[in-house]
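Co-fold these.
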Amino acid sequence: MAYWLIKSEPSSYSIDHLKNDKKTFWNGVRNFQARNFMKDEMRVGDLVLFYHSNAEPPGIAGIASVCKQAYPDFTSWDPKDKHYDPRSTPTKPLWHMVDLKFVEKFSHFISLDQLRKNSALKDMLVLKKGMRLSIQPVKKEHFEMIRQWGMETV
DNA sequence: GCCAACGTTGGC
DNA sequence: GCCAACGTTGGC
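Predicted complex below.
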């Protein structure tokens, strides 16, 4: 069982959208490193920190879990989709996605600023300068600390 | 296979 | 809206 962090812009898809949908497919990933994490390493039952990027403030909003292992991202060969990539076809899919389901929304949103101030978390990839990867592995101890923190009553 | 140019991400 | 940092593309 592994732990991850995924980024999403709340203006396009927030933790509240996921809470409402209960489940969604994580399409539109068009970066090879992120794709490889999904395709090669994400497994059903893995837990995911749901990060709000390009937000005010940015930070971790809750938790999701992987409920379907990687399969071809069919939006990649749809010319009408904004994530269309002509290199990808149904017979030779280039991009993949997983399904995520809602687990919990944090009672205590953890801002990027708060993450930075916690020295126990300083090795987290999301805190590294210039780190743009939208899907990142997270250490178990970091995940557990953040989960506990996030569920604290404020 | 190098690397400049370009496009994107995402904090600020 | 700016722009640094990065990934990707394409000319050579």
